[in-house]
Specification:
The chain has 363 residues and is an alpha/beta fold. It is 38% helix and 16% strand. It has helices spanning 2-9, 18-31, 42-52, 73-77, 96-109, 128-137, 189-199, 222-232, 235-252, 286-295, 327-334, 346-362, and strands spanning 35-39, 60-64, 81-85, 115-119, 142-145, 153-154, 157-158, 165-169, 182-186, 258-260, 267-268, 274-278, 301-302, 317-319, 335-338. The strands form three sheets. It has an eight-stranded mixed beta sheet with strand order 1-9-8-5-4-2-3-14, with helices on both faces. It has a four-stranded antiparallel beta sheet with strand order 10-12-15-13. A three-stranded antiparallel beta sheet has the order 7-6-11, with no helix packed on it. The longest helix has 18 residues, at 235-252. It is globular, with a radius of gyration of 21 Å.
């Protein structure tokens, strides 16, 4: 409220002002990246990043398959062709094996991608020591979609800092929110300058309104940035709260055929969502659990439906981690996102786990 009040007191409400500048600086300092650009959404950031890498009609872009549509819709904004890369079992993130297969195909077919979008899924990092060398070998830049992973680390380094360009989201469901918004970060100052230009309607530095390029209304308001600054101050507390919720679920589910999404040894999650899978041999399925919780007015959700299964992308290519078995599809079939809000009380957690445990014991 302090930062919001400052915006009103100084009469800076629009997508300019101290909060916008400071939010960019403070988030970049937290992540360990030099330059940031506060935007209206994380999707806008991906769009600008693709535009910066000159993605256009007929081009190809590789993208994680198990993700939300916001990761890949911007590929279509540029009239390009998405190619989806399956998950690995260890982290649920992009499989290096599937990525290598995709590059081998692209080289053979002369369809090399202009960029690779690697998603840090459900609050934890992809395996960058395996993925980045592949992209570097083929000289293709990486856009890191860390929309869900602010505060998570890979070998001590913050998510959002691994790609040439990193993306964050501050939508209402994320670990911190600006009500709606996002940010693009990079150590490439020229990239941020160019994206800032496009995000402010590509207005040329002239007294009259001069435009030579297509622009977008993508900037974040000073009010929303004020919310973000306040939220950023409690980010580490949010992570700790969500970690305790995961540990409670982990302890409570011992003895029933439910497994929590693994966290690789070299990663520290931000615990955005606690996601579980049900043993495929069990007669209880995710719909049963979701329905039972819904009867008690408790919201849970399925795992993201892989983009390669979406009608919108039915004609897009995809590459699997394992021959004739799609790992992401298996997670979709047997996975559930459980309530994970940072203020979820112990009594609420107990109710959730009791209901789920009883369902399995009765079946």
């Amino acid at each position: 409220m302090k930062y919001i009040q400052e915006a009103f007191d100084t009469n800076w409400i629009a997508p300019l002002g101290t909060n916008v500048d400071k939010f960019e600086e403070e988030l970049c300092e937290y992540v360990g990246v030099k330059h940031g650009l506060a935007l209206s959404s994380g999707t806008a950031g991906i769009h600008l990043a693709l535009k910066y890498f000159d993605v256009g009609p007929g081009d190809y872009v590789f993208c994680s398959d198990l993700t939300f549509a916001g990761s890949c819709n911007p590929i279509l904004y540029q009239y390009a062709n998405p190619v989806f890369i399956d998950s690995e079992p260890e982290s649920w993130n992009m499989s290096p094996i599937a990525l290598e297969k995709a590059f081998e195909w692209a080289k053979k077919e002369n369809k090399m991608p202009k960029a690779v979008i690697i998603v840090d899924l459900y609050g934890q990092s992809a395996d960058y020591d395996s993925l980045l060398p592949i992209c570097e070998h083929y000289r293709v830049p990486v856009i890191e979609d860390a929309a869900e992973a602010l505060g998570a680390t890979y070998k001590g380094k913050k998510c959002g800092s691994f790609g040439h360009i990193g993306i964050f989201s501050f939508n209402g469901n994320k670990i911190i929110t600006t009500s709606g918004g996002g940010m693009v970060v990079s150590n490439d100052e020229e990239a941020i300058k160019k994206m800032r230009f496009w995000a402010t309607q590509s207005r040329e530095p002239a007294k009259n309104y001069e435009h030579k390029e297509v622009g977008y209304n993508y900037r974040m308001s000073n009010i929303c940035a004020g919310i973000g600054r306040g939220q950023l101050e409690v980010l580490d507390e949010r992570i700790e709260s969500k970690k305790k919720i995961r540990l409670f679920y982990e302890k409570s589910f011992k003895g029933i055929p439910v497994e929590i999404i693994p966290i690789p040894n070299n990663c520290e999650s931000n615990y955005w969502l606690t996601v579980v899978t049900i043993d495929e041999r069990c007669i209880v399925n995710p719909s049963d659990v979701i329905g039972l919780l819904e009867e008690e007015n408790i919201e849970s959700r399925p795992v993201w439906k892989p983009m390669s299964l979406q009608p919108l992308f039915s004609e897009s290519g995809s590459f699997s981690h394992i021959q004739e078995k799609h790992v992401g599809t298996e997670f979709f079939k047997k996975g559930i996102c459980l309530p994970s809000g940072s203020e979820l009380g112990e009594s609420q957690q107990y109710l959730i786990t009791e209901l789920i445990s009883r369902l399995f014991k009765e079946n």
